[in-house]
């Protein structure tokens, strides 16, 4: 057993409960609703989280150097067990909160957490005119421009390099890449989301939201976001998935029973995701710790964060006003 797997297994076995009361939920707002100073602070805090000098790794998993690296490890290590499964939405809800907490505790971020309201931008015009783009690198994600290799050429993340690969090893440095696709952006329409909202059952809704509203958000940006394992290396990942979490919350808010509605398989069986799972962390490394006692996802399912945060259950994150999440969407 590798050192990484041995340490990871110990963390998998540890489950904690978040106990602080949710009395002052943090706000999550569309990117367009942040002030200029809030946008600048968010981008600076994101750059801080990537910097080993400012936010050094506390786990050193897979050779991670920064807290940003650790977030990548948490996603890469279990890609087969957090996509096209029942835990897809709750795991990513907890992941968004872990990301937020790191921005605040490691880098002093004090503002609201932004999301990219893709549905509004899709209705307003082409992807290249989206509100996330701009010419000021201090307050935007750049213009989306790339060189012949797809590496971004402007904006705050032109110097971003990541090198933890899909087998949880340090490989060659990779740049942040975009490959903008209008036909994928068109799949992020409110009409498609409305079709998901019309579904009553969580399993059906999860499958629907995990379809075009999820995958097309990745493919519309393309490049780094195209990679099912490595996509959290792109800060856009968190803007996209925070919006997805908002859409899930909109659906949940329509019926109180949806705060406990959970189901679906807990291990992805598609050839694509099986192949993407690191060989050092097979199903046998995870399944004993899921807490479901079957192959169906339950509220007792344990979500692992690779040492970046507590391992908690799905039941603890079903309500965004829970102690674990404690946010509100505006």
From TrEMBL:
Domain Tyrosinase copper-binding: 83-100, 234-245
InterPro entries with a match to the protein in the record: Di-copper_centre_dom_sf, Tyrosinase/Hemocyanin, Tyrosinase_Cu-bd
Keyword line: Copper, Metal-binding, Signal
GO molecular function, one term: oxidoreductase activity
Signal peptide: 1-20
Protein name: Amino acid transporter
